[in-house]
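Think of the structure tokens as a kind of shorthand, similar to the way a musician reads notation: each symbol stands for something richer, in this case the local conformation of the backbone. In the example below we present two proteins back to back. Begin with the first one, reading the sequence and then the tokens, and try to describe in your own words what changes along the chain.
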Amino acid sequence: MDKKIEQLKCFESSPKGENSTTNFGVKISNDENTLKAGPRGPSLLEDFVFREKMTHFDHERIPERIVHARGSGAHGYFVSYADHSNLTKASFLSAKDKKTPLFARVSTVQGPRGSADTVRDVRGFAVKFYTDEGNFDIVGNNIPVFFVQDAISFPDFVHAGKMEQQNEMPTGGSAHDTFYDYISLKPETAHTVMWVMSDRGIPLSIRHLQAFGVHTYRLINAQGKSTFIKWFWKPLSGTLSLLWDEAQKIAGKNGDYHRKRLWDDIEAGDFPQWELCVQILSDEIIEKFEFDILDPTKFIPEELAPVTPVGRMVLNKNPDNFFAETEQIAFCVSHVVPGIDFSNDPLLQGRIFSYLDTQLSRLGGPNFNEIPINRPVCPFANTQRDGIHRMTINKGGANYFPNSIDGNYPRPKEEASVKGGFLPYPEKIDAVKTYKRSETFNDHFSQATMFWNSMSQHEKNHIVDGFSFELSKVTRRNIVERVVNEFLINIDKTLAEKVGKNLGVTVEPKVTKNIQKKLVKPSPAISQVNLLSGDIASRRIAVLIFDGCDTEDVMSFKKEMEKRDAHVDLLAPSNAPVRGCDGPSLTPKSSWVSEPSIFYDAVYVPSCGQESLELLQHNGDFLHYILESYKHLKTIAFSGCPSIIKETLRLKQDLGLILGQGWRDVVEAFTYSLAHHRVWERESLASTIPA
């Protein structure tokens, strides 16, 4: 054993006192910027330092994805709203009502495949369009910006955010030392960290995710005109989130909560839908911006550049086999079709290389495109042959170009006559090779402040709570103090003071330079308060039934809610049928304990007789159900039994705690309250209620 330990010590490496080098010992002069053709130019393939670092990172895990390992997916289709050929020659956007099959995958970033769905994290949102010109992938997130500006920093960010290397904890979360050590030393992370610490980091469900392409892309029409754009996915169900206490409890009760809710909705025929939108960035609009559209840490508020819907996505079929489809699907930023091109965003430029490199490792070689879920629906032909897992049986005698044996096929057409072929935008490049970053990327805190200023009061409270919780898990006091005094203080003084107070940190800002902020005016389109759907379609309602409840009341309320396209489940003290006071027995879906209030958006209690009322007043499971729902600011309606609220629980009545005599008395108020998602005015009071 001692001999083995000595052997292992030969491979130990300490970072102290060492200069950065490549794996072959070449000293690195710059480890934060890729080599580019000019500060705002494209990244260069000759940058061997970046390629070595990214290649090693891409191959660190097999076969699980390094990031985005925990995911859920579904098949669907996209329908174009119109002929958008004025913007792009991409075929799937070329005609009104044109339908394109697709597969979408939504994932957390940090945790492994076995982690929980409801952790605080960024959600990946990737869509593969099987167009008649080839596969096109939009590989985005539910947050419109990213932590770092240059792809060479991506491995460092992921290493810092992942489970700590000495103990592989925590699973699926960022509440630990290395994450906050990194972000507090990397000011460019400020904007994205604010989004993650907000309610956006704990979405209610997959169908309630707003998503973004993050980067700036080009659309190119048949005349060769280029237009910069940003991709947006807007959910038709509204953008909604969990509360932090809910998210944690759901993680313990059902780690597959988001996956199951998506699966159940599709199986029930209640198909999630999103609008695909573009933010069109004309030269006139871009000139007005006080930030760089190539900077992936910057967001373009809708007030500065309106969002135009171009089509609708519907997810309508669950996978037949999770591994074969959801796990083996391979998204690549480099999967574009004619009419769509890249910008010089240095993070995007690195992802173009990284995603393909990752699939080569994870899926066993260069033929991952032949796995059924990845195959295009259009014909494909080239001179690529052989390799592990080759499925195509290529006929003919030549596997090279040019050739005379097979009539010189397959071959490209001459550029001037290419019909529908991919041609990059002929951007003129005349620059000096450099590791420098464009000075237009230097403003790191303005948009983080804009995000804070755009939040409603309860959303600001949740951000304070998010930072307070996360930093309470950081064991090194100097890191906590640095986050408060050198990071949060530069976003907003009130934010820093409130978080500092919760952590016992005195706010003493260490100003190293005068930070000039631009564009801090609120953007109403960012706040989730303004992103509600306006209805209760797809919302989940728990109806608590029990012996002696009014059967007609139960069934009438259920029918009324289902007319509004809500999901209604009958839940009882156990899985056994209950005896109604006025008719046949009712069969519950499950019990109050098996399907707790955290799985539902609202609760309804039907009317009942005095005997049943007395039993409910002493039933701990029932009282806990109501208290927990109240604590989580949910709509609760009693069509009778007011004494439980007024005398037993002594809860303060509000717009979301509705008392009546029969279902007709409460149905409209119930619908109105649920359509507003939560009873936010209850929050300060509810925080004192144990549950």
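Once you have a description of the first chain, move to the second and do the same.
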Amino acid sequence: MAKAMNSKGMNRGGMRHGGLVEKPKKPWKTIVRLMGYVKGSTWLLISALLLAVGGTIMQVLSPQMLGQATTLIFQNVSSGTQIQFARLSQTLLTVGLLYFGKFITDALQSTAMTVASQKTTQRLRNDLKKKINQLSSSYFDKHSNGNLMSIAINDMDNIATTLQQSIVQLISSVILLVGTIWMMLTISWQLTLLACLILPASVLVTKLLTPRTQQNFRAYLKTQGALNGQIEESFNGHEIIKSFSNQKEAITDFQKLNEEMYETGWKSKFFGGSMMPAMIFLKNFLYVIIASAGAWQVAASRILIGNLQAFLQYSSQFSQPISQFSMIWNGLLSTVASAERVFDVIDAEERAIYDQEAFPDRPTDTAEVRFDHVQFGYAADQLVMKDFSLAVNKGDMTAIVGHTGAGKTTLVHLLQRFYEISGGSIRIKGTDIRNLSHEELHNKIGMVLQETWLFSGTIYDNIRYGNPNATDEQIFTAAKAAFVDDFVRKLPDGYQTMLNEEISNISQGQKQLITIARAFLSDPEILILDEATSNVDTRTELLIQKAMRKLLKGRTSFVIAHRLSTIYDADEIIVMDQGDVVETGTHRELLEMSGVYEDIYNSQYQGAA
């Protein structure tokens, strides 16, 4: 990031309307990759799994113990003998200890998985943030802020929730299923066959509902990102929307996206939520059949009544992991969808890193900055700069003028490598900027732009942003140089005054002076200035210009000029048209050429000499 950057973040990518999207392209590959982020929490995961195994074993043993107690009571009552309370109490105490142990293992397992899932998503979130900082500006031209925010927040939360709940549940469900089937077989293989009918029925329900759930949930997530982007644009530009009476259009766009989100949302929730009721219906239906068949076997003295009670409990436990599996599978589908969206960003093409031998430096170059036959186009087959050359000497102030779309902003973006050139080279002190890391390059460059960028926080912190290692004395010195100190000390909280989210508690001119103070603190070798006085009153404009002249002194600078009156004393003025330099010279020399510059000058000052 260039020092003292003050371009307020906007939704540059526009809105993306969500629709139905395809299934995950590589679901198992995505799951394996996601598990790679769990490695840092291996011991927590192992602990949770061991606790899950122990708790499940206790759960499997409990019905058998209760069945023994029931059989004991029934036999004593049937034979007319006294109930063996000592033996009964011992059995019930054992059952109580098993239930208590299950409670403890569940609590510890939940804690371990909560920590593991949060640590995993923390690592994933760190990689996502790191990657976003490495992406080129062209990526953000194609992807909306709202969609990226949805990925960073909603998808991450979805992944964390699934990791916390589903992984251990999946393992414990398998153990519970195997243990339950074994215990059921020891009681009655005929009743076990009846209970197993739920398996094909469950598979059928899952196959019917899963594709619709998956398809609609991915569409829901994409539409959610588009809706976030539309809301952000509407909030940031509400004054513009009202000025052009476009409230109806904004509401229509919102309603369209909201309707899409409603449609995909209720469908994904309906199909996903239908799994559990369907499983419960199957479970209850089979329970009635098993109870009837079991009662017949008890009457025929084929099984003990306590064993029937235990079997009925096992049949409920048997359907429990089946039902859990359907919910876990539904959660895994949504997590795969979320993880794919996250990995799509992580796998996006980064800013280019070049081999230094491919672009040899020229240490003998005397220019501070040199554009040498630069070619550039936002699309490979549409060049907006075809052969741009410019040499700027150390300490020179170079003004850039031209009609809208001439390439002024593109020029400074290329200097900062926000975009990569298609041909030629850009060098600073003879070093090709492609041989510098982005951090090295941006440490050399400071920016003060027309649209101020400040963040919610204190005035002190906003100035310190230009150099996080600056001392208090350096910060106050920069503030005084930019004429910030005077108005700040008149505020009730001084430098600790909190700027609100919209930065509306100070004036536009004061905001601009703070960005200049930030640039002073960063002390860059090269300075980029976009006309910073167009939205302020005359008195504040003079103050800002005075601060900017102090900032420019002794620095190599590029000034994008909108008001020609601010660049009369520039060392060189370059006039751009359609991406190329058409005129160069001082103010007086350019007027004498009677070309594009004179046309721009006359359009601003009709009748001026």
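Compare your description with these statements about the second chain. The first strand starts at residue 369 and ends at 376.
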